[in-house]
Amino acid sequence: MTKLKRILKSIGLVQLTSALMVVAFSAIVGVNCSGFAPMGIGADGSNSSQSTGEQDLGVSLLTSEQILKTMLSVTGTESSASPTADDDLITRTYNLRSGSLPSTQGLSQATGPMLISVANIASAVCQKAVNNDRAVGEGNRDQRLFFRQVDFSSGLTAQNSSGMVAAFDLIARNSWRRESSAAEQGLIANFVSEFSTGVDSSDPQQTALLATSVCTAVLTSIDALTY
Q: What is the pTM of this model?
């Protein structure tokens, strides 16, 4: 898992997730995304959100347990009667990182450590989602949940970016309860095209890592973490 996190960081997952957050949050509060931060307290001790000290944007943050349950639900990765190695990884990662996750629904809980923890958990969940689709096999791609146009038996050079974008849109529909926008799909397409820089593009494992990254970007976005 540590190796996977280093790889995800090196390929710019943080920048991609941040860009998706900007696109999504701009739709909520307009182009001035500073509204995400807590409001300051005035000289009279008051603020615009009464007891929370935040702007009332009509948006609430998912709490710790809600984040995990939602990730598992939208990716179809709920634990089975006999937990797999992927299930164990998800449990260990959540237990390790849950202390940094939100305890309340206030947007002020969306701190840097919280977002890093979310990314760690999301990558573990997405690793299982990708492994589930890989296990279906190339001859039955239409039975996969998400990566129906991806050839997991081949490296990045054999992939079509439209296949990853299509998978991104399917995951986004489940997670965000809406279709992804052209701008969001464009961000993913650019990310896919840049992913092969500095890696062995003939290695099928890189295809799985790219798929995991695309899934992780969805689960760590503003739309996935709020309601």
A: 0.77
pLDDT, mean over the chain: 80
- Tell whether 39 is covered by a domain: no
CA torsion 168→23→119→175, rounded to 10°? -50
Question: Residues, the chain, total?
Answer: 227
* Residue for token pair 């799909």: 185
pLDDT tens digit sequence for 166-186: 999 999 999 999 999 999 999
**Domain range holding 143?**
2-24+60-225
226: Cα separation from own chain's centroid: 12
pLDDT per residue as tens digits for the range 94-134: 999 999 998 877 777 777 788 889 999 999 999 999 999 99
DSSP, collapsed to helix, strand or coil, labels residue 61 as strand
Distance CA 203, CA 212 (A): 15
Q: Where are the beta strands (DSSP E) in 31-85?
A: none
Calculate the alpha carbon distances from 127 to 48, 55, 119, 136, 156 in Å: 41, 36, 12, 15, 17
* Region at 139 (left for phi over 0; alpha for psi -120 to 50; beta for the rest): alpha
What are the structure tokens assigned to 17, written together? 């997730």
The count of structural domains within the chain is 1
In a domain, residue 35? The reply is no
Cα(first)–Cα(last) distance of the chain, in Å? 29
Q: Express each pLDDT in 74-97 by its tens digit.
A: 999 998 789 999 999 999 999 999
Contact 59, 226 (CB under 8 A): yes
Residue 18 pLDDT: 59
